[in-house]
Q: What sequence folds into this?
């Protein structure tokens, strides 16, 4: 038998008792970056689809959305294998709560079937057999540029895959491509969709020589994005600067732009380059099949009354066969001039000087452009 004894407790010396511990302030440099602004999901998009009906808007003033094959659904996708009422989305603060509605084939998220899961921007889920991605405002706006620069049928980086990585990941990126492929525009789009988009974007146009200036630059880019353009005329990047830049202590997301991966490996530490996600922007010349779509997007942006299909068959073929050595820079010039020409009355009967004046370029510039593209009369049907 165990005998209990009630010994008196020692009195508490409150004067010397430890005070309630105070949680120390967090050192930002020790943490992963995060986004703490308005980040609502405003649309669902069918993953890797360019169908005109592939994007489904989710207005912020609505609290719930039904998805399925029934006409009653706000996210209505008929004839694609979904149940009549396949899933329900409910706004819960900044997130959406996804519910399976006892569908025939279920809902899958991150490789697992689920009855309910919270979604954040960039999350994918499959309402079998269809896969959707949740978009915030920034993703929705920047996706158009990704489609233009990358195309929709090129592995390994589809626009949607890169969009998700930009929105959810923080890894370093290497963007390569020929001159005029708009590397920096893509880099800026990646930052604009990222978790550090509310922090200052730094572009390192020239690497400082002084150590203090190098350190100050890296500290300025800490927990944000730094774009580092490389070119053939540069020597190897200073090893001390590179070690600072790629150090986890500063948590800089580095986006390197270069003509080739080989150039990046020559100028930067090879191990740092090999760990980067490599995105290659294809030259326009190898995208001849997409040229009508690319040019039509640019013409639409410029409010042009005519499209690629309005060119004569001979001129369409000349546009497809042109080498486009300056890539997007040259294609945008072509769109500017085609849009201006389409708005000019009686273009074919005007003299070259009158034509040049009508679209705001020098006569010699316009004549040279026609000769370079080998355009024939009439330009349009």
A:
């Amino acid at each position: 038998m165990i005998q209990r004894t009630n010994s008196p407790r020692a009195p508490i010396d409150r004067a010397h008792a430890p005070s309630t511990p105070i949680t120390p302030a967090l050192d930002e440099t020790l943490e992963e970056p995060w986004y703490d602004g308005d980040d609502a999901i405003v649309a669902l998009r069918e993953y890797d689809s360019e169908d005109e009906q592939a994007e489904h808007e989710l207005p912020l003033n609505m609290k719930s959305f039904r998805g399925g094959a029934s006409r009653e659904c706000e996210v209505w996708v008929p004839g694609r294998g979904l149940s009549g009422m396949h899933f329900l989305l409910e706004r819960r603060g900044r997130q959406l709560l996804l519910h399976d509605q006892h569908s025939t084939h279920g809902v899958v998220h991150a490789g697992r079937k689920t009855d309910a899961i919270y979604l954040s921007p960039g999350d994918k889920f499959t309402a079998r057999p269809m896969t959707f991605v949740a978009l915030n405002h920034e993703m929705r706006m920047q996706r158009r540029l990704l489609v233009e620069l990358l195309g929709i049928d090129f592995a390994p980086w589809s626009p949607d895959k890169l969009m998700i990585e930009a929105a959810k990941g923080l890894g370093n990126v290497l963007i390569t491509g020929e001159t005029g492929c708009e590397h920096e525009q893509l880099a800026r789009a990646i930052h604009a969709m990222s978790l550090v988009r509310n922090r200052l974007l730094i572009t390192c146009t020239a690497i400082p020589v002084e150590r203090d200036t190098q350190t100050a630059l890296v500290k300025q880019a800490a927990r944000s994005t730094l774009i580092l353009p490389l070119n053939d005329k540069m020597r190897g990047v200073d090893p001390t600067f590179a070690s600072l830049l790629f150090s986890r202590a500063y948590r800089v997301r580095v986006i390197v732009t270069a003509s080739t991966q080989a150039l990046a490996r020559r100028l930067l530490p090879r191990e740092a380059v090999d760990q980067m996600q490599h995105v290659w922007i294809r030259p326009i010349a190898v995208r001849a099949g997409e040229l009508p779509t690319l040019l039509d997007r640019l013409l639409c942006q410029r409010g042009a009354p005519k499209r690629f299909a309005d060119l004569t068959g001979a001129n369409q073929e000349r546009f497809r066969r042109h080498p486009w050595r300056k890539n997007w820079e040259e294609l945008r010039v072509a769109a500017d001039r085609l849009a201006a020409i389409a708005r000019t009355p009686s273009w074919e009967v005007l003299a070259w000087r009158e034509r040049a004046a009508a679209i705001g370029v020098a006569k010699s510039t316009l004549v040279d452009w026609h000769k370079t593209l080998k355009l024939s009369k009439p330009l349009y049907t």
Q: What stands out?
A: The chain has twelve helices and 16 strands.
